[in-house]
Amino acid sequence: MFEHNRDTLEKALSAIAGRGYWSAYPESPSPRVYGEGAAERGKEAFESYLGKPFPLDQPGTGAWIGAERSPYGIDLGVTYPEPVVEDLIGAAKAAMPAWRDAGPDTRALACVEIVNRINQHSFELANAVQHTTGQAFVMAFQAGGPHAQDRALEAVTYGYAAMTASAPIAHWEKPGKGEPLVMDKRFTVVPRGVALVIGCNTFPTWNAYPGLFASLVTGNPVIVKPHPRAVLPLAITVRIAREVLAEAGFDPALVSLAAEEGRGLAKTLATHPDVRIVDFTGSTEFGDWLEQNARQALVHTEKAGVNTVVVDSTDSWRGMLGNLAFSLSLYSGQMCTAPQNILVPAGGIDTDEGHKGFEEVASGLAAAVGKLLGDDARAVELTGAIVNPDVLARVESAPSLGDVVLPSRAVRHPSFPDAVIRTPVIVRVDPSASDVYGREHFGPIAFLVPTASTEESLEVLRRTTKARGALTASAYSTSPEVLDQAESAALDAGVNLSCNLTAGVFVNQSAAFSDYHGTGANPAATASLTDPGYVAGRFHMVQSRRPA
Amino acid sequence: MFEHNRDTLEKALSAIAGRGYWSAYPESPSPRVYGEGAAERGKEAFESYLGKPFPLDQPGTGAWIGAERSPYGIDLGVTYPEPVVEDLIGAAKAAMPAWRDAGPDTRALACVEIVNRINQHSFELANAVQHTTGQAFVMAFQAGGPHAQDRALEAVTYGYAAMTASAPIAHWEKPGKGEPLVMDKRFTVVPRGVALVIGCNTFPTWNAYPGLFASLVTGNPVIVKPHPRAVLPLAITVRIAREVLAEAGFDPALVSLAAEEGRGLAKTLATHPDVRIVDFTGSTEFGDWLEQNARQALVHTEKAGVNTVVVDSTDSWRGMLGNLAFSLSLYSGQMCTAPQNILVPAGGIDTDEGHKGFEEVASGLAAAVGKLLGDDARAVELTGAIVNPDVLARVESAPSLGDVVLPSRAVRHPSFPDAVIRTPVIVRVDPSASDVYGREHFGPIAFLVPTASTEESLEVLRRTTKARGALTASAYSTSPEVLDQAESAALDAGVNLSCNLTAGVFVNQSAAFSDYHGTGANPAATASLTDPGYVAGRFHMVQSRRPA
Predict the structure, then answer these.
(1) What secondary structure letter does DSSP report for B180?
(2) Which of A137, A275, A535, B134 could form a disulfide with B71 if both were Cys (CB 3.0 to 4.6 A apart)?
(3) What percentage of residues in chain A have a pLDDT greater than 70?
(4) According to the model, what pLDDT value does residue A77 have?
């Protein structure tokens, strides 16, 4: 039915094999790309949801719930059907056999169609992401729209590749003394069971799509449980998925929404005997709980991490400072990939502008952030707003953790007077204060640590990553030997490394189809977005053979 | 170094994609295949181990332990170095970085070399397998030798395919408004950590090799802990692996033996924080314990199951009875794949020799087994010996479970007077006695169950498989509709199905590179030997990127 999507699937298969640059969904919100009026229509669509029950044809208790409030200071007032857990799971199970029997090709092409339709709603989603996460609009468009869609397609593609790596039928002919033994065999992909995706507050689509589509393409019905503060982007997603599935003749119960106001629905669903896959993004505390308690399920978690930058030397002093300043400021550091610990030798570093002492590095970085965020109106388009009160509390108490190199600054948004906006705080702490920098401080909080040497910096990188996990690591050096040592440390610690970023690539950004997000090799995540380990456990092969 | 093995690896890669017939290691023990004198030299090599410390250059406590006794009635008297757990794990960890850095190609070619060398020791291993498991010689040669070697190569190949599905390096060039962004990226396979393989009593090599080689090829050092009654086949294996690894310049501690006399070493090793992968074959009780307690590890288990035969009708009455009789008798049913429950409509079945009532099916099957095993000297070459006292106790108490259709018979081995040998017992039980036939009775014990209809038989298949697991299912019918219903039941239950086996293919046998062994989709196993899900979790991808 969606045969016209095969070309996209083929290109995506080439992309995951080569892992060079490729993208299916343009990241530019320009009218030249998405059409005149697309931005306006998307904003209207978003606004049409506000203050009303969300149009979702899904059975529930009859109660409509929801209490989302934009970090920009407005109540959304959207409500969602409160689910009945047993009904939700029962409907998902009933929908499964036909989806299984449809086979990998039909499922993959339908999943691509869902992602294509989501892409057509990118502006609507951008507004929904902006007003649930606090991201600035352009970031909400890109990270919540095309970048998330690329990750979705990537997951579909990995799932399809894994399901089709072996032939679906085989003719087996074993030579022998007499007549050969001849059998016909059929190999069927069988889904693991009902899947649960638990969304997060900061990247509701980007972090939920890989699990959602990896499970769906491999034959599993998916229940999407958004974070109570970021329901709308996933409600729109679920609605689109259900529409496409119904169009294709499948039961829309293959994808359903489990909205809540934060009363423990995730625990109930995750430990239900019929829930066989759980994907989660969020706190280490709850991720660990899921791993310990959702024993009947395959559990994939992405949790907290401590991201480290090792500064040894640079041939682009200004490029390095500008790049780091941007990484600290983007979405106020409210990214699992944002750097937290910047390790610099106490004796300073060599640069293309001469030797810089530790204090010069500190003041240089502070000045770079100050310059980048100097103009309020431009600053808010980079930092966005603070997503929730927990982050705000951490920023406000950060000065007590060490010597303040750069204080955080409250910024007033020109259009949203009630938005809570803070620039990054940079705090100097000693290498001995590993109780401080050795754990995650999610938000616009960075630590500058004077180490005895780059060797010690790499040792800190190894130690903190192994102990607390990390999603990114980064190193700056003009020495090939030091870069090799950094690579070696990153391999030992199991963290993805970026070296010498001084221009338009930032450590907190990963490109679908090329960059892996997370590795599974350190405590921050159980798997990568996306690699074979992320999809393989979601299905089984069941064979049937008979004499030919 | 082992570049000459690349052709084998390439052929194996084609085989896992097509899953038709292919084998790398000839299953015939003929001198025309393995050379004149190979059988005699293998026997001498086996005998040279008896009554002595096994030649293994591996550090230990200084104590030499071991208490293997052949089911054919002789003490082996081989002893093995008692390991010091921390030393074993420490040595394995120290060996890991160089093995990781060697990369997928070097590791895969070295693993193929290990399997090739094992193949050269097939006769030696056949004697060791015979005298630890009780298998008859030819079966010990085939299942313990070439068939196990094919499974080993299959695991190497799946691991290699998963590691190399994406390019190891990529040039990323993102077009933009100004200069394109250009990055060079490297993707490195990083092992999960120290792997543990826990061997079983009945198929020490066949069931241990997939885990051993899947972990090793993906970069993990492997500690092999054999069943205390079946150490020698794995000690020989470990010795060969260490020799090849040392020849190739790697630390032989990448593969080590953890022998014990049965004092809980498996629990100590499996829960050690540095053990990150556990492969286990054995009882449901201990498999469940591992899944619950070895929380720091990826755990793959193969446990008990209840294998079912649904008899609806046949166009080969004699072929069906002969095939079933063979499947019940082979290695006295001491196979995880042997049928246990034979479900037949109480009203009988249609056959090419006319309608047969239930009693005729029962007496026909009893006669077929009786004829197959009528001659003692020939019978023992099919049944082998009873592997341990637990199995013997179950056979002896089986008549109390229902109405005996065929009693078990003690057979005297012409060469080994102390061998314990029993033919299968067949017991008729009612469909209501699911407390009896609904659990595994490992050994030469089969139940004949008169059901109301084939529909009920398929329902019993579904129910018992979902509840207790199964490694095989089988159906006989001349009706395409019934075969379709059987396939549908097998998909729902997640079990591999064989239909209408009446000639030289038996339900308890699976051919590497074509048949999957287990599915992971029912409680008998967590994964299949071998599919992508079996290998994918054993390694991670870690990336490094820098501006080009």
Answers:
(1) P
(2) B134
(3) 100
(4) 98
Whether residue B533 lies within 8 A of chain A, CB to CB, comes out as yes
Q: How close B178 gets to chain A, by Cα (Å)?
A: 11
**Which of A 472-491 lie inside 8 A of B, CB atoms?**
483, 487, 490-491
- C-alpha distances (whole Å) from A509 to each of A301, A335, A497, A506, A517 are 19, 9, 12, 6, 9
Q: Which whole number is the average pLDDT over A97-115?
A: 98
Measured in angstroms, the CA of B64 and the nearest CA of chain A are apart by 36
Whether residue A176 is predicted with pLDDT greater than 90 in this model: the reply is no
Distance from CA of A160 to the nearest CA of B (A): 12
Confidence at residue B23, expressed as pLDDT on a 0 to 100 scale: 98
Residue-range domain boundaries for chain B: 3-303+528-547, 308-499
Average pLDDT over every residue of B400-408: 98
Q: What is the pLDDT of residue A59?
A: 86
Rounded average pLDDT over A192-196: 98
- Cβ–Cβ < 8 Å for B89, B275: yes
- State whether residue A174 sits within 8 Å of chain B by CB: yes
- Give the separation between CA A303 and CA A285, rounded to whole angstroms: 8
Yes or no, beta carbons of B504 and A181 under 8 Å apart: yes
Does A3-9+40-303+528-547 match A308-499 in CATH topology?
no
Q: Is the ipTM here above 0.85?
A: yes
Cβ of residue A94 closer than 8 Å to a chain B Cβ: no
Does position A178 have pLDDT exceeding 90, yes or no?
no
Domain B308-499 falls in which CATH fold? Aldehyde Dehydrogenase; Chain A, domain 2 (3.40.309)
For residue B511, list chain A residues with Cβ-Cβ distance below 8 A. 172, 174
Q: How many residues does chain A have?
A: 548
Q: How far apart are CA B208 and CA B198, in angstroms?
A: 7
Q: Which pLDDT band, with edges at 50, 70 and 90, does A163 fall under? A: very high
Strands (E) located in A154-285: 169-174, 181-191, 194-198, 222-225, 255-257, 275-281
From chain B, pick out residues whose CB is under 8 angstroms from the CB of A531: 166, 536, 540-541
Residue A326's CB: how many other CB atoms inside 10 A?
A: 18
Q: Is B192 on the interface with A (CB under 8 A)?
A: yes
What single-letter amino acid sits at B508?
N
Nearest CA of chain B to the CA of A208: how many Å? 21
Cα separation, B507 vs B491, in Å, equals 17
The B residues from 359 to 398 touching A (CB cutoff 8 Å) are: none
Question: What whole-number distance in Å separates Cα of residue A233 and Cα of residue A235?
Answer: 6
Chain segment B105-140, per-residue pLDDT in tens: 999 999 999 999 999 999 999 999 999 999 999 999
* Partner-chain residue, chosen from B172, B183, B494, that has the shortest CB–CB distance to A542: B494
Give the residue from A163, A164, A174 with the most B CB atoms within 10 Å of its CB, the best one to mutate.
A174
Chain A 421-450, residues with CB within 8 Å of chain B CB atoms: none
The Cα B221–Cα A373 span in angstroms is 50
Superfamily of domain B3-303+528-547: Aldehyde Dehydrogenase; Chain A, domain 1 (3.40.605.10)
